[in-house]
Amino acid sequence: MNLKKERLDYFSTPFAKGLSVLSLFNPDHKNFSLKEIADALDTNPSSAYRFVNTLVKLGYLTKDPRTKLLSLGQKAYLLGLNLVNSYSLLDVVKPFIDEVNEQLNVSVDSCVLEGDHLLQLYFRPAKDAPYYQGLIINPAINCTGLGKAILAFLPEEEQQQLLDRIKLYRRTENSITDKVELIADLERTRKRGYAVNNEEYIKGLITIAVPFINLKTGHPVGAVSFDFLIHQGPLREIEKKYAAALLKLGKDISAVIK
């Protein structure tokens, strides 16, 4: 039996192409024309149309009747949410976040780094706090506490490669968009053990964040943050009051990651 042929027999090229279409969409490029999709897949427009039309019929893509531009449909978003909710790491971090939220009454957020984006794992708001929900998929790694916590603890070569690839977003006047300045901030983060975000992502929002680490590899798996509104106190007071608890939370999660 030809094992190579057998493996190819069980590989569905049309299905793979359909998944490739869905993978094109991201927070920076939410809409595509049929020609753009055909070019990205290196295929002809008629073949691309078959893939796209099938995904539209199934609800994974939607087509604007006026512009003909394509965007992700409700089925795709539901698939993404189900993926996040079924992610095994969520089962690890959720009990720890719930416990510290109840003990300290702080808003706690968490994420993992997937490619060049942050993927939110679990967010638990403080009681009676104005509700804030971050992006489920966030490309602004440079100006979030979670993103900087992960960046700071990546191996130097991997950190440099990621910084070379990603866009340095400016969300507020406090966002760090200069690469040299960002690297200096990441060095300070590594020394203190946690990242700080003083209204760099959203005006009025302060966060402190710490990575959780795979202790076998020493590699950051994700990050967890405490989030505060500016009326709850200046950054230094927040650090003094909550940094120790945050560092403990990061260590507790790291201890059970496999």
From TrEMBL:
What UniProt keywords are attached to this protein's entry?
DNA-binding, Transcription, Transcription regulation
What's an example of a GO molecular-function annotation for this chain?
DNA-binding transcription factor activity
The protein's matches in PROSITE patterns, at most eight in alphabetical order, are given as: HTH_ICLR, ICLR_ED
Pfam families for this protein: HTH_IclR, IclR_C
The record, for SUPFAM superfamilies, names: GAF domain-like, Winged helix' DNA-binding domain
Query: What region holds the HTH iclR-type domain?
Result: 12-74
Q: Is the Transcription keyword given for this protein?
A: yes
Has the keyword Transcription been applied to this entry?
Answer: yes
Q: What is this protein called?
A: Transcriptional regulator, IclR family
Query: In which organism is this protein found?
Result: Candidatus Saccharicenans subterraneus
